UniProtKB/TrEMBL annotation:
Gene Ontology, cellular component aspect: membrane
UniProt topology in membrane: Multi-pass membrane protein
Domain called Citrate transporter-like: residue spans: 27-401
Subcellular location field: Membrane
Biological process terms in GO annotation: sodium ion transport
GO molecular function: antiporter activity
Organism: Methylovulum psychrotolerans
Protein name: Sodium:proton antiporter
Amino acid sequence: MTAILQPLDLTHNWAGYFSLAVMVIAYIAAMFEESTHLRKSKPMLLAAGLIWFVIVLVYQEQGDDALAVAAFKSNLQTYIELLLFIMVSMTYLNAMEDMRIFDALKVWLVSKNLSYRQLFWLTGFLVFFMSSVVNGLTAGLLMGAVAVAVGKDSPRFVSLACINIIVATNAGGSFSPLGGISTLFVWQHGRLGFTDFFQLFIPCLVNFLVPALAMHFALPKDKPDIAIRTVQLSRGAKRIIFLFGVTIGLAVIYDMKLHLPAAAGMMAGLSILQFFYFYLQKTTPPDSQKPADNALFLGGGDVALADLANKLDIFDKIGRLEWDTLLFFYGAMMGIAGLGFIGYLEAISQVLFGQLSPTLANILIGLSSAFVDNGTLMFAVLTMNPDIPQGQWLLLTLTLGVGGSLLAIGSAPGIGLLGQAKGQYTFSSHLKWCPVIILGYFASIGVHFLVNAKSF
């Protein structure tokens, strides 16, 4: 048996053509999820399985599959680290939702008797900062619920507020390693340190402000008529917010000081949440499960809380994760990794970062994120491993993060709000403001070159 020391070039082999076709078909099937009602994870999981099956088969025919198996395991480890990080983060968010923290925030916002223009800016700035630590879809839907609630008599406000929320969410998630899948990838692969991302704060702020200023003048000037409601937080709600902050801190310490995966710190934080739930279970009187008589919730009516045992069950929170999306990313990551191992990504990299300038390549990749998931694109570039300076990695992070704002279907918050504000916020209403969003896109790139010139 002859050991294979370097990956084989399979770009012109039957296995390469087969793998490429399978990945394209799977991605097309995922894109048409809403019309076919076929969950996007299904074709991607099948594609990843088939791609690595034929890769290992070809290597076995050549006499040694050790290199291919090692490559698969290396990419699997990358996915597992990402999965554990997201799992803990979303578990905390589900815990906060059960404690009615997000309901309380919604009620607080709609009860401030603000004008439409004030609410437009308040929701925009809140979601901009919130999305730097909270999942973009969660943050976007939270503020979208506020916009729909206060703008029930003004479809124009709802439409503009939703566009603003999407742009702000994507921009806010781009200056933090915790802001989304693509930034997590860059941090996890060590291309940028935890604090390096904050250099993108001003460019991201510009990306949000440029279209917001343009839309400001199209907003109604009057105030919405909203009935004031209250909501009662569950016992332990504020302490869970604090513990989430502690968990994020542990992730940073494990990464920067101990040089362990950030996911290890997140898992330590998950254990803290489990012990806190145990404490609440042992110290909460049974009669406190019932909501207060004067507690009113957004949407009307009294809402009975779940029984204490289920409410404080950590595995209930884990079970409610968006598993379809997480499994989709497994298929996308492993499928792209397979194409990279075959040799296709190296060929694409030579065109993008060899024949084109890195700046033009990163701008084009960012624009393509309006059509293709930015996490998938970022992993593809990381697999290409181009030799570019830190400033270009920051530029790629910026363009991929904010490029999804160009179209309503370009990001998870956009797709979520299309359903949440159905009939008021539409694909065409977003497209109408695409020119000013593009202006913000290029303005943020210009500001990045200006304020982060030393990184190039």
